[in-house]
Amino acid sequence: MSSKKKNGEDGPITIKKYANRRLYNTATSSYVTLDHLCQMVQEDVDFVVYDAKTGDDITRAVLTQIIVEEEAKGQNLLPINFLRQLIGFYGDNMQWMVPRYLEHMMEGFATNQEKLRQSMQETFGGIFPFGNLEEMGKQNMAMFENAMKLWTPPAPDASSDDEKESGAPDTKTDSDAASSESLDDLKTKVEELQKQLEVISKSEKKGS
Hints:
Layout: E1 13-17, E2 23-25, E3 30-32, H1 34-42, E4 47-51, H2 59-72, H3 80-88, H4 98-127, H5 133-151, H6 158-165, H7 171-207
Parallel strand pairs: 1-4
Antiparallel strand pairs: 1-2, 2-3
């Protein structure tokens, strides 16, 4: 990849586009793709694109195509409302002002992007106690595990087994035994009541 920069001594690199849509870099004498041109833009390498047959400058159309390709990959930089408003200016009597206005705004943003990046880091760094998403993920997982422990009953420890072996009363066994005795007493009382009802019923029949 050529390192010729914008406003370099040799001027912008010439890219020729042929009828088969292939792009030819005249500086490196090799064919390139839109991804290559995108990388050149990101590296601030200046170039112009000409139609190989007509000689027309088609740089604007090729750059627009790069944007379309990047948007299709999920690199969404253009909000839908912005696109609608931009399309709405086509044919408007204020259309001539839009390109210069957008260019001015982007130049200002590019000039101050480092200050903006630092400001964002300071702002969000004060909100989030961790330096990166990985640390935040670890903290969230720890919080989740702690919350799960609150809802998980503790497993029986070794002290319970020691108490059983030493002859200490088993609370669970005593409770079960008490419940069993209560059921037996209830059954006995029900049987006694049934016997009494039978005796009363027989005596009434004899009296009649």
